[in-house]
Design brief:
- This protein is of the alpha/beta class.
- An 8-stranded parallel sheet has the order 1-8-7-6-5-4-3-2.
- It has a single domain, classed as TIM Barrel (Alpha-Beta Barrel).
- Helix content is 51%, strand content 10%.
């Protein structure tokens, strides 16, 4: 892989250890990625749910690896900042599947990936911890062979899926987080963890960069930074918010025949120029 891609991976890894949290309003297509890049964000993360929804699939690995990474590749080629890809559980149950996905993430042009331990099965909501560790190790080794130091954001769904009794949840999340860190994860992602005191304790005990999923009801970014959070992402929240806008536009058009919900849309010329500028950067005026 190219030296430029390794430099982007190094930049992304360093962003997890800065004075400010790395903010990632997750994207689902080239248009949303270009908007976020133009807004000045130093890196871009994809949302697996948002990408799946946009092509007609539910979340939880119903979309194929090929379809997901085709979209990741289009996004990575369209922007200049580092891209980290949400690839769910790695598209397969074996460490070898996760390793293949890691290589294809790099081939798509991304320099980071999320790898989660949720199964989507209410009867067995989490992957066996030892298997999850083996998958992270396989990803690390596969990335090493490509020459790109892929930034691995290991996600545990202990809180998101409310696994086990509330009083045992924290201990399970810590056990998994430490195991994933020791297996080679660069950052630990704990969606569903919102209580400031618990977040603070978690960060101290894990002793590793921590990613928090934010949204309505979450502490603000300045508050999360004071707690020591290294990375803040929005998951599918921004994509779902745009669907809410589409619904409001449709309801207004149908009910009153007016267009107020369209008033804050960027101008056609402004959006067109986003892609004109990037095309010139990539291919030149010819």
């Amino acid at each position: 892989m190219s030296e430029a891609q390794q430099l982007r991976a190094n930049r992304l890894r360093e962003m997890h250890r800065g004075a400010q949290a790395l903010l990632l309003p997750n994207v689902w297509d080239v248009a949303s990625a270009r908007i976020i890049e133009e807004a000045g964000f130093p890196a871009i993360a994809t949302t697996s749910a948002g990408i799946a929804f946009s092509v007609g699939y539910p979340d939880n690995q119903r979309i194929s690896r090929e379809q997901m990474l085709a979209r990741v590749g289009r996004i990575a080629r369209a922007v200049q900042v580092p891209v980290t890809a949400d690839v769910e559980g790695g598209y397969g149950s074996r460490p070898e599947d996760a390793a293949r996905t890691a290589v294809e993430v790099i081939q798509a042009g991304a320099v980071g990936m999320n790898l989660e331990d949720g199964t989507g099965d209410p009867a067995h909501p989490l992957v066996d911890r030892l298997l999850a560790v083996e998958k992270i190790r396989a990803v690390r080794e596969a990335a090493r062979k490509t020459g790109v130091g892929l930034v691995v954001n290991a996600r545990t769904d202990t809180y998101l899926d409310e696994v086990g009794a509330p009083e045992s949840r924290y201990a399970e999340a810590i056990l998994r987080a430490r195991a994933y860190r020791d297996a080679g994860a660069d950052c630990i992602f704990v969606p569903g963890l919102r209580d400031p005191e618990t977040i603070s304790h978690f960060i101290r005990e894990v002793d590793c960069p921590v990613n928090i999923l934010a949204g309505p009801g979450s502490p603000s970014v300045p508050e999360l930074e004071k707690l020591g959070v290294a990375r803040v992402s929005l998951g599918s929240g921004m994509m779902r918010s745009t669907l809410g806008l589409v619904r409001r536009i449709a309801e207004e058009l149908k009910s009153s025949g007016t267009y107020r919900a369209l008033e804050n849309a960027p101008a056609y010329a402004e959006v067109n120029q986003l892609f004109t500028r990037r095309a010139l950067q990539m291919h030149g005026p010819g």
